[in-house]
Amino acid sequence: MKPASKTAPRTFAVKSFGCQMNVYDGDRMSELMSAQGLTATDPDQADLIVLNTCHIRERATEKVYSDIGRIRKHAMARHGKNPMIAIAGCVAQAEGEEIVRRAKVDVVVGPQAYHNLPELIAKAARGESALDTGMPVEMKFGHLPARRRVPPSAFLTVQEGCDKFCTYCVVPYTRGAEVSRPWAHIVDEAKALVDAGAKEITLLGQNVNAWEGEDGSGASGGLDGLIRALDRIEGLKRIRYTTSHPNDMREGLIRAHAEVEKLMPFLHLPVQAGSDRILKAMNRSHTRDSYLRLLDRVRAARPDIALSGDFIVGFPGETEADFAETLSLVDSVAYAQAFSFKYSPRPGTPAADMAGQIPAEVMDERLQRLQAALNRDQEAFNAATVGRTCALLLERKGKLPGQLIGKSPWLQSVHLVSDAVVGDLVEVEIVSAGANSVAGVERVPVAA
Ligand code: SAH
Ligand code: SF4
Ligand code: F3S
């Protein structure tokens, strides 16, 4: 059926779900539409709503469909007409036409094609079908407008896609093969971010530490070389990167943690499970022992580094003994923070057809035990920082008068009462700790 034509939208809202790369993409779509003369507004009032979706677990996907229904209902109640709906992100890539059939949306655009959004919106307004899930050879970034308004802590995507094919994961299918953005483009974008007010840049990629490219002199290098180049940008105070794969964690990057002062002492290095049998079935291609030895090297380079990870419980075939190995790995690492998920079978992935799928109650119970251990370690990490003095980058206002919230070097949320403003870096002493955040008081640095 041919969709009915709609008037061209004048206002828009973007809602992003999923990982930080989606947040980055959402911001870039907003910039693109603003550059086309559309005005950003709240989702309740917008003529065009872009849902920038995530496909990683079943719940994330179902949420998209329930959101579409809710948006339409609200819009009808508010102004009696249906907004134009565009589905972007990984659900768009994975489901394609299926979303148009199931939810009658106006535009479907994949994560590598959103530079074509203006053209797709125009097509939809003419009542034409508007679907683009292509993975062009030339990357979208060159077709996007320059960065203008950015927060103190900004994201910068440097690498996309994944060639690892963990047996549970949709990312290699939704984001495509591993591609690194060219060095010069990244350095230019980083400078533009700093000129627009960013003090901290987090380099993003599905496997960010697999980034490779040639520097200005033609020498090829890895993420550590790029980090060292960004280190030279005046005005940039802090550098972070996420997410890394254990197999791409090379010596140069570990050394950068010892040598580059702007590189923050934090590493998100997902392990997923503690049993070699399960790691093998997951196709992780690292072992429990190689992961632990890697962390020893990272800690030797940067003793105060805060470690973070991702875990999946209830992967097909996971026995109580396998799960006990995940708990013992957690005990030996003592993560500063971590994310943990119940295994979710994803259509088209090898694990979805494996024997030994784990019942929901068993997964629930394992997840509770794992999260109790991770929460215990997070609280202990926070408590151990009490008494430390560190720089804090203020990112937003808190709920109380005069309250500001910022991030410590170890990525803790720090609450502070101060006359400083968002975007300032202030010297604080951490004075008390909770499970999810800590409190600081400002210390006036002694003048040199
Ligand atoms: N590239 C990153 C992570 C991408 S997805 C990496 O390899 O570390 C983020 C996290 O979602 C994964 O680390 C994993 O813990 C979780 N995840 C991915 N697929 C999943 C699935 N099918 N079920 C449950 N959790 C999943
Ligand atoms: Fe998914 Fe594995 Fe690739 Fe991470 S490394 S994105 S978990 S396939
Ligand atoms: Fe989700 Fe796609 Fe990111 S599936 S986690 S939005 S790469």
From TrEMBL:
Residues binding [4Fe-4S] cluster 2: C162, C166, C169
Cofactor note: Binds 2 [4Fe-4S] clusters. One cluster is coordinated with 3 cysteines and an exchangeable S-adenosyl-L-methionine.
CDD domains: Radical_SAM
GO cellular component: cytosol
Every TRAM domain range: 383-444
Entry's localization field: Cytoplasm
MF GO annotations: 4 iron, 4 sulfur cluster binding; metal ion binding; tRNA-2-methylthio-N(6)-dimethylallyladenosine(37) synthase activity
Ligand binding ([4Fe-4S] cluster 1): C19, C54, C90
InterPro entries for the chain: Elp3/MiaA/NifB-like_rSAM (IPR006638), Methylthiotransferase (IPR005839), Methylthiotransferase_CS (IPR020612), Methylthiotransferase_N (IPR013848), Methylthiotransferase_N_sf (IPR038135), MiaB_methiolase (IPR006463), rSAM (IPR007197), rSAM_horseshoe (IPR023404)
Record domain MTTase N-terminal: where: 10-126
Cofactor: [4Fe-4S] cluster
Name of the protein: tRNA-2-methylthio-N(6)-dimethylallyladenosine synthase
Species name: Sphingomonas alpina
Gene from which this protein is expressed: miaB
